[in-house]
Amino acid sequence: LVTVALALAGCTADPEPRREPRSTPTPGATPGVTPGPAGVGDPYFPTAGNSGYDVERYTLKVRYDPASDELRGDATVRATAGADLPLFHLDLAGLTVRRVTVDGNPARHTREGTELVVTPAAPVRAGAAFTVQVGYDGRPEPLRNETIGEGGWLHTADGAVALGQPESASTWFPVNDHPSDKAAYDFEITVPKGLVAVANGVPRGQRPAAGGYTTWRWSEAAPMASYLSTVVIGKYRTTTGEHRGRPVFSAVADTLPRGAADESIARTVTVADYLESVFGPYPFAAYGGVVVDEPRIRYALETQSRPVYSANFFRGGENTGVVAHELAHQWFGDSVSVARWEDIWLNEGLATYAEWLWSEHEGRDSAQATFDQQYAASDDGVWRVPPAAPGAANLFSESVYQRGAMAVHALRVTVGDDAFFRLLRTWAAEKRNGNATTAEFVATAERVCGQQLDDLFAGWLYGTERPAPPTRR
Ligand code: ARG
Ligand code: ZN
Questions:
Q1: Which helix (H) or strand (E) holds 131?
Q2: 3-state secondary structure of 393
Q3: Which of 1, 150, 399 to mutate to test the pocket of ligand 1 (most atoms within 8 A of CB)?
Q4: How far is 243 from 62, CA to CA, in rounded Å?
Q5: In this protein, which residues make up the domain named Peptidase M1 membrane alanine aminopeptidase (predicted)?
C-alpha cells in the first residue's frame, strides 16, 4: 500500500501494448509465463527471473557493516533442472562475484547486466537436482525503475532495509527473481552487536559471531516469491510472543516515539484472526510486522509473514487499515501469488477489499458504503485503465487498488454473500502456496457460484469505461 503522496502520482498513462512472447511455452510451466533464456517471459518485465530450473531453497548467509555499507554474501541455491543446462542465469544486480560452484565443482561465471551467467563444468541434466553456491561482496545498490520507484537494498541511517516490488532480491543475493519460482528460505544475517536484523518467517535465535558481530537466523519454510523477502537492520525495539502456537516477532524503529506505530502493529494477530474468519486458515508459521523510519520508503509491503510499513502510515494515530491490507496479502499475494505481473489486481483488489471488510467489522464504513464512495469519486484515470491489464507503468495505480476492490464488490453483489465468501475461501485453499492467473480466478468464480460471469469481469477488469453499478442476479 502506498501513502497518499505517492498514490496520486502518475496513474493515468495508457496501458502498455503487450509484447509478443519470444519462444513457445514449456509444458508444465506457469500459465501465462513464457520462458526465455534470460527472463521467464513476463510481458511486463522481460528480464525478470530465468528459465530452465526451479529453485526449492535459498540459504543466505550475509554479513553487513552499516559503517562501510559493505556486504559479504554466501548464497546456496538448491534447484531442479527443467531442461539440460549447459549454462543457466541467476539475477544479480551489482556486487562482485568471487566464486561459484555447482554441486561442489568450480563453475565459470560471467556478468551480463543484471544477470549472472553460470557455466558448470558439465551440463546439469534435465530433472536433476543441483546446488549452486555463490560467494560475493560489495556495496549493494538499489534498482532504479523510472515508473514505479526504486527497489532493493537501501543503506539507512543506522543499518539497511532490503525491500521492493516487483524487484528487490537481486540487489543482495543471486536469485530467480520472479514470483513464478517460489522457494523456501533460510537467512543468517550477521551485523554489529547491538543492531537488530529481522527477516521473514520463524525466528531461529541469535548467536555471537567473529569481530563483535551477532548472527540472526530466520527461516521461511513455505514457498515465498523473491520480492517478498526482506531484511531490516538497525536500531529497533522488538516485541516477541506467541499466537495459536506460532511465534510473533515485530520491530519498530527506535527513532519513533512509542505510540501509534507500536499499537497498530500490536493489533496484528487480532486482525489476522478476523481475516482468517473470512478467508480461511492463516497461511504461514509466524506473524509480525516491521515499521521503518526511512524517508525513501513511502509504502508498506506484504513481505511474507512479516510486512514492512513506512512510519508515515502511523503519523496520524493508530492505523489498522494498512495492517489489514498487508495481512490480507498473506493469503492473496503471498500464499496465492501472481504468475505474471499483469495479474497484480488479484493481490491489490483483494487486499484493498479486505480493508473495506475490516472497516465494516470495526463499526466504521460498510463495504457497500466504501464501494459507493469510490464509485462516485473515481475519475477517468481509473475507468480508462483496466485493472487486469494495467500496463507496467500502472502496476500500483488507483485502478489496480480501488477499481480492483470495486470489481470484487461488484462480484459479491452479483452472486450474493454465500457464494462470494465460499469463493474467497475456495480460492485461498485451492491455490495455497502456489501461483494463479486472472483466467483461473474467473473460472473458479464461475464454478463456485454456478453462474456465467464473463460479462461482469469483462466490464470490471478489462473495460475502459465505468461499468454500470452491480445488481443481484
Ligand atoms: N504491494 C504493496 C501494497 O499494496 C505496495 C507496493 C508499492 N510499491 C511501489 N513500487 N510503489 O501493500
Ligand atoms: Zn497491497
A1: strand 129-138
A2: helix
A3: 1
A4: 29
A5: 318-460
- Omega within 30 of 0 (cis) for the link into 179: no
Distance, in Å, from the CA atom of 66 to the CA atom of 62, rounded to the nearest integer, reads: 13
- Give ligand 1 pocket residues (Cβ under 6 A): 1-2, 148-149, 165, 299-302, 325-326, 348, 396
Cβ within 8 Å of residue 34, ≥6 positions away: 21, 22, 23, 24, 25, 40, 41
Q: What does pTM read for this prediction?
A: 0.94
User: Rounded to an integer, what distance in angstroms lies between the CA atom of residue 88 and that of residue 81?
Assistant: 10
Q: What is the largest CA-CA distance in the chain?
A: 68
Q: How many CA atoms lie within 13 A of 78 on its CB side?
A: 9
Name the helix (H) or strand (E) containing 384: helix 380-384
Q: 218 CA distance to ligand 1 centroid (A)?
A: 24
Ligand 1 centroid vs 59 CA: distance in angstroms?
26
CB 54 within 8 A of CB 79: yes
pLDDT-flagged residues of the chain (< 70): 3-37, 146-148
Query: Which ligand 1 atom is the nearest neighbour of the CA of 151?
Result: 10
CA 470 to ligand 2 centroid distance, Å? 24
Q: What is the pLDDT of residue 39?
A: 86
A 10 A CB-CB count for 444 gives 16
- Decide: helix, strand or coil at residue 154: strand
182: amino acid identity, one letter: K
d(CA 211, CA 197): 17
In whole angstroms, give the CA distance from residue 394 to residue 392: 5
Ligand nearest to the CA of 297: 1
DSSP state of 303: -
Q: Whats the size of the chain, residue-wise?
A: 473
What spacing in Å lies between the alpha carbon of 8 and ligand 1's midpoint? Answer: 13
Cβ–Cβ < 8 Å for 86, 123: yes
Determine the residue type at 277.
Answer: S
Q: Are the CB atoms for 79 and 85 separated by under 8 Å?
A: no
Q: Which ligand sits closest to the CA of 352?
A: 2
